[in-house]
Design goal:
Kinase-like_dom_sf, two-stranded antiparallel ribbon, transferase, 4 helices, 4 strands, nucleotide-binding, alpha+beta, Transferase(Phosphotransferase), domain 1, 115 residues
Length: 115
Amino acid sequence: MLYIFLELVSQGTLEQTYKNCPFKESQVSHYTRQILQGLKYLHSCKVVHGDLKCADILVTESGRIKLVDFGLSKSMEDHSQSLKLGLGSSYWMAPEVANPKRGGYGFPSDIWSLG
């Protein structure tokens, strides 16, 4: 099944927002907390995002974060699994993803991408 959800997010991506006005430390903390809450929810639903980067995070007018672009996302049965997914964005890739001999995508790779 394919589900498409649409919502107007007028501030654009986190990347665009940062380019327009560099963040203060309090903003970084605010956004990071929300991203972690989003990842916690995804991981509790056994979903790995697989390509988390600033261009895949939208900012609403009220400063709320929306994780988007689930094109490389996969469902996993447990936290000990790792997956071989399609290529992601190399600048945000965890070492175990960049070197397939070390494992692949998993829940920890999403946290690496956030860092």
